[in-house]
Specification:
The protein is 40% helix and 14% strand. It is of the alpha/beta class and 395 residues long. It binds pyridoxal-5'-phosphate (PLP).
Length: 395
């Protein structure tokens, strides 16, 4: 079995990567160690690059049809990874998950209707509907004493009215890395189905459950869930190929599917570009060994952060993610305003993380750390942070 090297530093210079190229614009300086946007710092695995290279060797990139193994590879992957039996006709390509959310908002939410989100949550859940002039209403997650989160169904019932048309679910949850349990998903499905609320379940981090946790596909938990939902998934996070737009949708409900897919089809919004199916098939047919090793490395990184903070940075309490390569850092014990907290990370520690406030209500006092990186870089980041915290004598 091949062993992959996740310690190897990859120089991204010249690749136009977002993580480095916009530091000046977003953080006001370029001398930062970037641990923000959710792609990983190791190479996209060789079996994907080889498959793409094979196709590039035929140097004519005209119109193409979908390779016959595209949907069987997706169906097999979902069955083998998540035990969910998806029918071929339930599936279609979508041009990215945030774009997919935009498409659903435009297609299914009338201009006077509302979209529910559960912050703190991935910021495009708010920005995309709001940018499309739909009202976004919040059912903030409840934070428990041990730092974990749960959905608040009483609050949801109290805030919902007949104008609420869509709920966007982050499953597993970004930024807190939660794999929602079956009873939570069942309860959510029951509630939304009975209130005529469509659920978009964004499952982009599905294949990255950690520490023995399990991802449960929302639509698989009950008939109500299958009836009221559109699921989005992709190999893009797991196999570090976000630049190769390769997402897909699953809609089990025939009525919903007919409406959505007909509209996508006439507008050719569900036609993959030439490279997406090639990369997807390679990922799903050849990626399990790499995925397993990558997840063990991510777990090692999470443990490293937890141990380091416990020992040297007790004012920073990382929430152990159940899935994903994102760690939600509770920095409240530093007792800084959000501006001072961001200043500490950026201008003192010279680190570019995501400001917790961007994830909405409940995000203040937090920063999101991307641990999809080499251990040596993570260590450097934590050492910089320790020095900065000591220098500022916070808390
Ligand atoms: C929860 C979640 N959804 C969607 C995306 C982005 O997906 P896409 O690039 O397909 O729009 C991300 C990227 O960080 C994410 O974390």
């Amino acid at each position: 079995m091949k062993t992959y090297d996740f310690d190897k530093i990859i120089d991204r210079t010249g690749s136009g990567d977002l993580k480095h190229e916009v530091l000046e614009q977003r953080y006001g300086r370029i001398d930062l160690l970037p641990l923000w946007v959710a792609d990983m710092d190791w190479e996209t695995p060789d079996f994907i690059t080889d498959a793409l290279r094979d196709r590039l060797n035929h140097s004519l990139y005209g119109y193409t049809i979908e390779p016959t193994d595209l949907w069987p590879s997706v169906i097999d992957w979902i069955r083998n990874r998540h035990g969910w039996e998806v029918q071929r006709e339930w599936l279609t390509f979508i041009p990215g998950i945030v774009r997919g959310i935009g498409l659903v908002v435009n297609r299914f939410v009338k201009s006077d209707e509302k979209v529910i989100i559960q912050p703190p949550v991935y910021h495009p859940f708010r920005l995309t509907p709001a940018g499309n002039h739909r009202e976004v209403v919040c059912n903030p997650l409840r934070r428990e004493a041990d730092g974990t989160y749960r959905m608040d169904f009483e609050q949801l019932a109290a805030m919902v009215d007949e104008k609420c048309r869509l709920l966007i679910l982050s499953n597993p949850h970004n930024p807190a890395g939660i794999t929602w349990d079956r009873s939570t998903l069942e309860q959510l499905a029951e509630f939304c189905d009975s209130h005529g609320i469509l659920v978009v379940s964004d499952e982009i981090h599905a294949d990255m459950a950690l520490f023995g946790n399990t991802h449960i596909p929302f639509a698989s938990v009950s008939e109500a869930a299958a009836r009221c939902s559109i699921t989005f998934g992709a190999p893009s996070k797991t196999f570090n190929m976000a630049g190769i737009i390769s997402s897909w949708a699953v809609v089990p409900n025939p009525k919903l599917r007919a409406e959505f897919y007909r509209w996508l089809t006439v507008n050719e919004l569900n036609e993959p570009h030439i490279f997406a199916p090639i990369a997807t098939i390679a990922a799903y047919r050849k990626g399990e060994v790499w995925r397993e090793q990558m997840l063990r490395y991510v777990e090692g990184n999470v443990n490293f952060v937890m141990d380091y903070c416990r020992q040297y940075l007790p004012q920073i309490r990382p929430l152990r993610p159940q899935a994903s390569f994102l760690v939600w850092l509770d920095c409240n014990a530093l007792r800084l305003t959000q501006t001072a907290l961001v200043n500490l990370f950026v201008n003192e520690a010279r680190l570019a993380l995501n400001d917790g406030a961007m994830f909405g209500q409940g995000g203040e006092g937090f920063m999101r750390l991307n641990v999809g990186t080499q251990r040596s870089r993570l260590q450097e980041a934590l050492e910089r942070l320790k020095a900065a915290v000591e220098a500022c004598r916070c808390s």
